[in-house]
Specification:
Strand content: 5-15%
GO molecular function, one term: nuclease activity
Protein name: DDE_4 domain-containing protein
Structural class: alpha+beta
Subcellular location: Nucleus
Oligomer: single chain
Cofactor: a divalent metal cation
Pfam families: DDE_Tnp_4 (PF13359), DUF8040 (PF26138)
Order of helices and strands: HHHHHHEEHEE
Helix content: 40-55%
Length: 183
């Protein structure tokens, strides 16, 4: 599962004792987490997990969803910014000469975002290998749809293979191969 045994056991223990993962009448929490890790860590399908763990597709899907809910609860408690209100500017930004931006009063208006403050739109793409693409510099008044279409038009982002989808921001338009959360 791409994890050491002691780490897996600690994960199971924490999900069970702190986040409410409960065994079902046919499966203990270790097997439930194993199914989840198999699918997530190996990029496997439910069908593959069915074969490996000898459970029905309904059971594998249900167990995956239950463990995912608990992992999300765990993530909510563990993944937090050091400065939740972002009051301190990181030294890497302060010392970077490219970060400083001054605009004349005539140039300010296009950078005013929906909340009435100066902003800049940034498109960031990250895959499962943590490879990233970042496209900064868009004026704060630019809509997500405009940036998305410009990136597609200029072939700056990859198109998903047939039958696959990229998860995108809810501000992006519906388009084949790209799926956004429903508001």
């Amino acid at each position: 599962f791409r994890m050491h045994n002691d780490v897996v056991l600690r994960l199971v223990h924490d999900l069970e004792s702190l986040y409410g993962l409960q065994s079902s009448h046919n499966m203990n929490p270790l097997e439930m987490v194993a199914i989840f890790l198999h699918i997530v860590g190996q990029g496997c399908s439910v069908r593959n997990a069915m074969e490996r763990f000898q459970h029905s597709s309904e059971t594998v899907s249900r167990i995956f969803g239950e463990v995912l809910e608990n992992v999300c609860r765990m993530g909510f408690h563990l993944i937090k910014p050091i400065d939740p209100e972002f009051k301190v500017v990181p030294p890497q930004i302060l010392s970077n000469s490219r970060s400083c931006l001054t605009l004349s009063p005539l140039e300010v208006v296009p950078y005013i975002g929906q909340k009435g403050i100066l902003t800049q739109n940034v498109m960031a793409v990250c895959d499962f290998d943590m490879s990233t693409f970042c496209w900064a510099g868009w004026k704060g008044s630019a809509h997500d749809t405009r940036i998305f279409y410009a990136a597609l038009l200029n072939s700056l982002i990859f198109h998903p293979p047939d039958g696959k989808y990229y998860l995108v921001d809810s501000g992006y338009p519906p388009r084949k191969g790209y799926i956004s959360p429903y508001k």
